[in-house]
Amino acid sequence: MIRRHCIVLALALLLCWPPFVSAESAGQSGAELHFCLRGEPKTFNPLLVEEDASETIRYLTGGVLIRLNRQTQALEPGLAVSWEVGEKGRKISFHLRTGLHFSDGTPFTSEDVAYTMKALMDPQLHSPTGDSFRSGEGQVIVQTPSPDVVVVTFPAPVAGLERLFDQVAILSAHSPKKEMTVLGPFYVADYAPGSYVLLRRNTNYWKKDKEGKSLPYLESIRLDIQRNRDIELLRFRRGEIHLINALDAEYFDRLQKEMPAVAHDAGTGLDSEQIWFNQVPAAPLPEYRKNWFRTTEFRKAISMAINRADISRIVFGGHAHPAFGPVSPANHFWFNTSLPVPQYDSAGALRLLTQAGFRLDGETLRDSSGNRVEFTVITNSGNRSREQMVAMIQQDLSQIGIKVNLVTLDFPSLIERITRTYDYDACLLGLVNTDLDPNSQMNVWLSSAENHQWNPKQSKPASSWEAELDRLMHAQASAVSDERRKADWDRVQQIVAEQQPFIYLVNKDAMSAISPAVLGSSPSVLDPHAFWNAEILRLAPDPALGAQK
Amino acid sequence: MSHLQKAAACILCIIVLLMVFATILLPASHVRQFRDAPNAGPSTAHPLGTDVLGRDSLSRLLYGTRVSLLLAPTAALLSTLIAAVLGSAAGFLGGRFERIVLAVTDLSLALPWLFLLLTVRAMLPLDVSPMVSVIIAFLMMGLLGWQASVRVICAAARGIRDSDFLLLARSSGCKPARLLLCHVAPNLRSLFYTQFWISIPLFILTEANLSILGLGVMEPMASWGNLLRGFEDFSALGANPWRLVPLILLVIVVMCFQLVLPSQEVTQ
């Protein structure tokens, strides 16, 4: 008896011996990907997602009708096999995949899509995702002529309608688990507040690889909640986590020096850094200073006098590129390729200022009333790259006689100044852009918008070019054809380049860190950079975690 | 004065001379950016290399020495003065006054002074010059950094409250104010010096932290505090050991102050 047990045990051990285990199966079974969330997820309801942590979970767990491929920037079928947009962007019909099930086994039908759309558009829910679909007054009508067909009709045309469905994770109409049952590659299996979120493989996920094997390959993903980026980097170096989705240039360079193979720069990203002058009429600033800031030549001269190439090279170590305007060149379709390349020309800047009535008095620039041109740039404290950018701007502008002071403020104080008291001259901040569509920037360019930072919440446009921006933004939002919308949005970009209400400085590269243990990764410029293809990621057979490999 | 103390005094004198004549000795302006040579190593043009923006590190070190060695001792003097007055009076008088002073000290120790400083920064007008901003920051540090010293001085004053020489002075008709000024304070002088000297590096490091929060020395000015921020990237230090110079200088200055201190006590 004992002898028989020994033989069984020996056989079992022999089968576990690495040469008997294929790399592929080792990669698929029991493999757990580790990385960090930079904050607590505020919700698991995919319709209420507002912040990054919840967005990460929605991306990994949510099944969507149409998926935006983060690499090609093209729309791909998800739960819908095909779709048609009709009635000039008011109506969209989906043909759904059949025989699909939610993670808890509940069947997926057109009723679930109808239920999701109704919940999404429910004014009581206040869904930020739903806000993108609100095109006009009236009800959204959802029809389900058959279990695999659903037709959604909006009260008014919605620009870029099909693209918006990339954000809509379908909920189950019948499952008692509500939003915790999903159609995406993973489902939330465990959550320890302040500690981690554990996602497990959804065995009912519909997608298969080319060989017909069910996706995802990974058994689970553990998302550790870690706010401190230094600790996140340290954990990556120690091999405790497999990837860092977004890295600053400084951290990227540090990592690249130590482990060049793990640091990935996907190229120019969508995020930008910009500076703007306070043009609020009621701002508590001297009138002469407000006049400078309202003068187009002044803003254009400042823009020309800033050496963006140096900022990209020195502050971001070459991991950024001079910015053209509100759209990054990484946004292939919507970027206006005819915009002029931003040029550094301090002599030209001085000429513009002279035309506007400024004069150089020795090494000091003065306005027509003799006031010295000096202003203070505020930015958020603790951000070294922004402080360094201002230091470089200080030197650039000193060459045309302008004195720039820097004041860093804690974030609440900064927000207080730029949104309520308007007690500041100029502000340098960044814009995190996750959406390619111009509609996502409506809250910036409409003169009545809160994020129209240089002069927000205007009752009527303060200038003719802002009125033109309003008209173009409304026009592109209601146009059906992408070509028409592109023409309007190109004109917006052109006006912004001419008027420089925001002086765009750089577009930062999309950088991430991925351990060699992660197979199948292909970092993209769109968010999520490192795990956009999580369903086909797998871990190398070597059980050792992370970067130390 | 021992040889070691003489050496320490000499080093301090040299540093002070460098600080005074910094303007003449600087290889370049501390704000000028040599953008073709960011993060450069030592060379004849830049003996200590350049920082991340291509500014001459030696110039920034000398200028930073001037800012830190002028303002940190001023803040230390202010805080020691407050601590000396409150601590010695509380320890000497004892009773309810001592309890009130210690309670206030405990209360202010428990206050989130960081938020207080942030509030002050948020309330300051934005158009103050960088130098004024720095002076305000150090004054705030001086006004808020006395609590630990008060407790030490109070304990020492309590220790001599019932001593024979005070009993004699009291019996000779000395009034409390005279007792405090002429008998208690001179006996606590060495403690005052110690508190003063140990506060200086503390304020330099506090300034480094405040720089991160936007209340310290702002760009393009330099101080030891913001030069120490370069150490955030530890990995670069191994390859660029000359970047340790600001830290070495800080350690040397603090050590020299500590070494010179006993001789001053004796001469006093």
Task: Please characterize this protein's 3D structure.
The complex is a heterodimer of chains A (549) and B (268). Chain A folds into three domains: 29-62 and 184-262 and 515-549, Periplasmic binding protein-like II (D-Maltodextrin-Binding Protein, domain 2, 3-Layer(aba) Sandwich), CATH 3.40.190; 64-173, Dipeptide-binding Protein, domain 1 (Alpha-Beta Complex), CATH 3.90.76; 267-508, Dipeptide-binding Protein, domain 3. Chain A is 31% helix and 21% strand. Chain A contains 17 helices and 21 strands. In chain A, strands 11, 12, 13, 16, 17, 18 and 19 form a seven-stranded mixed beta sheet that branches. Chain B has one domain (3-267): MetI-like fold (Orthogonal Bundle). Chain B is elongated, with a radius of gyration of 22 Å. The A-B interface holds A 250, 254, 257-258, 307, 310, 314-315, 374, 376, 378, 381-382, 384, 387-388, 390-392, 394-395, 405-410, 413, 416, 423-425 and B 31-33, 35, 38, 52-54, 118, 121-122, 126-127, 129-130, 133, 212-214, 218-220, 229, 232-233, 235-236.
What would the keywords be for this entry?
heterodimer, A: 549 residues, alpha+beta, D-Maltodextrin-Binding Protein, domain 2, Dipeptide-binding Protein, domain 1, Dipeptide-binding Protein, domain 3, 3 domains, seven-stranded mixed beta sheet, 21 strands, 21% strand, B: 268 residues, mainly alpha, 13 helices
Remind me, CATH topology of chain B? MetI-like fold
- Quantity of strands of chain B, as a count: 0
How many strands, which pairing sense, and closed or not: the largest β-sheet of chain A? 7 strands, mixed
Largest interface: A-B, 32 and 27 residues
- Supply Rg of chain A: 27 Å
The end-to-end distance of chain A, rounded to whole angstroms, is 44 Å
Q: Please, what is the CATH homologous superfamily of the largest domain in chain A?
A: Dipeptide-binding Protein, Domain 3
- The coarse silhouette of chain A is globular
How far the N terminus sits from the C terminus of chain B, by CA atoms, comes to 13 Å
The percent range for helix content of chain B is over 70%
What is the count of distinct domains of chain B?
Answer: 1
User: What's the architecture of the largest domain in chain A, going by CATH?
Assistant: Roll
